[in-house]
Amino acid sequence: MFDSNAPRFGLSTGLWIPIAAASVADIETYVGAIQHRITDPATGRVNALVVMPQQHGMPAQTQAPLWNSALAQKAGDRLYPALQVWVHVDFGGYRQAYNSLGMPAIPARYFLDHVQNRKAMGLRHNSHPYLRLCPVHRQVNTSAGHAAGGEGMERQFLATHHPAPGQNRIIYADPMDLTKMLDIPPGTQVLSGVRDTQRLFY
């Protein structure tokens, strides 16, 4: 099931990748079945979830050039893993939670990336507080989060512009998010990494 109210950036169905959700119930509706959860005993807030997505591995819809490229297997593994971890935007113990939930070990020099930037979500008043995690190389994390990177520019925009909230319950990955999830540095300023990778998306 897809959120028809959410922007999908002209991408084909096989690249509609959820990266943020308005609630745990929306994760269950639009992402998959919750296998485990970590809840704050004091507040009752769900802080972390392991989700078995409705789709894992190579998607059925393979129209995008990505699925016929040398990156196809890597893309299937990274965009559609058998299990995903989602965390609340304000949860600081996400790395420990990820490890405690039995996920594969995070390689050296890798970070757990909130695919949807946490600070940008805060500037959106936490409209979609549950964010998908994805391990990415340090270089990818640094490139994306730089003040002149895609996430930095997004934060600058949101600090002075306040877009009206939409009706969407899910946020889908845009080309920069997909580039990060493929473990490719997006670049800064002109986002050359996104420029060079997005030919695989359309």
What do these coordinates show?
With 202 residues, the protein is of the alpha+beta class. It has one domain (13-200). 30% of the residues lie in helices and 20% in strands. It has helices spanning 24-30, 72-79, 94-100, 118-123, 138-145, 150-160, 175-181, 192-197, and strands at residues 18-21, 32-39, 46-53, 84-88, 110-114, 130-137, 170-172. Strands 1, 2, 3, 4, 5, 6 and 7 form a 7-stranded antiparallel sheet that branches. The two termini are 22 Å apart. The model has no long low-confidence stretch (mean pLDDT 91).
- The strand count comes to 7
What is the domain total for the residues? Answer: 1
The quaternary structure here is single chain
- What proportion strand? 15-25%
How is this structure best summarized?
This protein has 202 residues and is of the alpha+beta class.
Task: Please outline the helices and strands.
Layout: E1 18-21, H1 24-30, E2 32-39, E3 46-53, H2 72-79, E4 84-88, H3 94-100, E5 110-114, H4 118-123, E6 130-137, H5 138-145, H6 150-160, E7 170-172, H7 175-181, H8 192-197
